[in-house]
Amino acid sequence: YIGLGMHTCNSIYTATGFGKWGFSLGFAAARIVADLVEGVENQYSKTFDARRWDLAHSAMSDVKIAAHVAKHFIGDRMLCPPIDIEDLASGQGGIFKDVHSDEKVAVYKDHNGEIRKFSPVCTHLGCFVQWNSEDNIFECPCHGSCFNTSGEVIHGPAVNPLTRK
Question: Could you tell me where the beta strands, DSSP code E, fall in 38-129?
Fold first, then answer.
């Protein structure tokens, strides 16, 4: 969001939510806010308008997003198939209930047969990660964090790696 912060106030400006694009969007935010203060039309101000969000028009979308997050936050904890991790094929991964320890783990077995076990809990906000067999990565369905087969963050919002088991 870039621009005036509230519908009811024309003197407080905001620039936030840049994520990975802070460097480039920071410059854009400075130009947009400067133009707003000076009363100059800016072709990008409507695109980034902080007041474009309207509760009355977006409540249903917000409810759907919250339901999606809740589904994964709770459901993924219940739906972990039991597996003897030693039986996992090389180059494969997943979220399983370890039949030996009875704990839920994120597992990857490399092509040399080395098994890497992690907590399946995303270090961002606690949803369970899922295995993406196409890209060989662990992904969080709630906010999009991605972790490589060593548990390291390759894409945030998470900043910490998966906890090794």
Answer: 82-83, 92-98, 104-109, 115-118
